[in-house]
Amino acid sequence: MFSTIQNLVAEFSSWIWGIPLLILLIGGGLYLFIYSGLVPFRYIGHAIAILRGKYDKHDSPGDLSHYEALSSAIAATVGMGNISGVAIAIATGGPGAIFWMWVSAFVGMATKFFTCSLSVMYRGKDEEGNVKGGPMYVITEGLGKKWKPLAVFFSFAGLFGTLPAFQANQLTQTLIDVFEVNESNTFIAKLLLGITIAIIVALVIFGGIKRIGSVAGKLVPVMVVVYLITVLTILILKFDVVPSIFKLIFTDAFSGKSVLGGALGVLIITGVKRAAFSNEAGLGTAPMMHGTAKTKEPIREGLVAMLGPAIDTLLVCTLTALAILASGVWKGFEGNGISMTLAAFDSVLPYNSGSVILTICVLIFAFSTLFTYSFYGYSCLSYLTNFKTGKFYNYIYIATIVIASIIKLDFVINLIDSAYALMAIPTVISTLILAPKVKKAASEYFQKLKMNEF
User: Fold this and answer.
1) pTM, whole model, 2 decimals?
2) Contact 264, 254 (CB under 8 A)
């Protein structure tokens, strides 16, 4: 019975992530990239100033500061997808998949600018008057009530896409690998780890969005800096192979011969899927978090959100990819995503210190994601039902952590990939339709900025 479900989910994931969805995500994002006139990209400095709190106003509607909103969104995206997901991309698509992750990230920056600007422009409220954001509210508030079925479709897919299955699965696998648990005891060990992780996550997520934002704001800078230093150390030790690595990424990107026997289309899809899993641009999760930011300026939040894919994919994912490729362990490696990354770190860093450092990074990365994703699922269920019922999602979320800790990785990846694909359809369609509203608002905002009216 379960194997039949696994096969069906695998087939559906393969089908839904075909050329049409690739056109929607990359084609739609590329259209937004060009349609923006690259104007938002000229204001990266201004985005950083916003992030630093220069324009924060405590009386603005919302729950989180710009920094907390971005930290929480990055906490959700800079997670296992950056450590394990990159390894999976290299294992299944070869080094060339990294190039297509980069392309997807640049396109994703434009996508996030539009989607997160819209999430503030068209916010909703729950029964208690709390500000809510996300594609479901953008669709109903921006496109009208007749589009509500599309909003319901997004929210239903979001209930599955935001489950913590991948993070819980790979976190337990990391601990099993590091502590070299005997194969006969693996199931019990994973079960106990899953229960422990669930308890820790419960202590944070039942405190609500403000506690999640506060914890994420403290964790994100630490985890990015520690990971950056570790990978730079690996690259310094393997400096002689770094130039050839970049050459390999670019040449393999247009051949796909390393793994896929020249199947360039499959290689591109692999890169885009893993980038989508990594930075979530176009999927609709980040707008739910950015929609709660304390601001009256939609464009301001769009600029802050745009920094997400740059930090997530262009920086952290690239670091992981370079570390794995520099180590050389990716060639003929048998094992799942996180096992490859662990092997790469250990093969370069002395005294098996790579496993210890990576385990610490994985713990921080995974828990930050686990804390934040619960808010996304809660938001989807709240929209479909009501504020009080939405709170029950956290119980489902905690139970999923335990279950995901003991099931196979392939099933987890296919399930989440399928849900992400379904979430992307209403998110990108609504964004493309409402893009002129964002462009007009951006033109007015940047004009005011030039006139020093802020």
Assistant:
1) 0.81
2) yes
Q: Mean pLDDT over residues 245-253, rounded?
A: 85
- Torsion angle of C-alpha atoms 190, 193, 195, 196, degrees rounded to 10: 180
> Cβ distance 448 to 305 under 8 Å?
no
Q: Which two tokens stand for residue 305?
A: 């959100």
Q: What's the maximum distance between 2 C-alpha atoms anywhere in the chain?
A: 69
Structure token digits, residue 451: 């006139």
Residue 155 — pLDDT band, cuts 50, 70, 90?
very high
Question: Do 279 and 111 touch, CB atoms closer than 8 A?
Answer: no
Contact 422, 157 (CB under 8 A): yes
Mean pLDDT of 119-132: 81
State how far the Cα of 188 lies from the Cα of 173, in Å rounded to an integer: 13
Strand partners, 124: 132
Contact partners, residue 244, CB within 8 Å, separation at least 6: none
Distances (CA, A) of 233 to 6, 151, 348: 40, 46, 9
Distance of alpha carbon 374 from alpha carbon 378, whole angstroms = 6
Label the pairing between strands 124-125 and 131-132: antiparallel
Please give the Cα distance from 168 to 324 (Å, whole number).
22
CA distance 411 to 306: 31
Q: Distance between CA 451 and CA 454 in Å, rounded?
A: 8
The dihedral through the CA atoms of 388, 165, 156, 377 has a sign that is: positive
**Summary count for the chain: helices (H), strands (E):** 23, 2
With CA atoms as reference, report the closest residue to 37 among 425, 436, 431, 430.
436
Question: Cα(294)–Cα(167) distance, rounded to whole angstroms?
Answer: 29
Alpha-carbon separation of residue 240 from 39, 232, 236, 316, 326 (angstroms): 38, 13, 8, 21, 9
The backbone region for 452, taken as left when phi is positive above 0, alpha when psi lies in -120 to 50, beta otherwise, is left
Tokens of 143: 């496109």
Cβ contact 67:51 at 8 Å: yes
Residue 107: both structure tokens together: 């396109």
In the numeric block, the tokens 């690239």 are attached to 318
8 Å CB contact between 67 and 218: no
Report the C-alpha gap between 3 and 398 in whole angstroms.
24
In this structure, the number of other CB atoms found within 10 A of the CB of residue 321 comes to: 25
The phi and psi torsions of 57 (rounded to 5 degrees) equal -130, 120
Q: Tokens standing for 230? A: 């570790």
Reported confidence tier of residue 142, pLDDT bands at 50, 70, 90: very high
CA distance 310 to 179: 34
Residue 444 CA to its chain's centroid (Å): 30
437: which 2 tokens? 């509203």
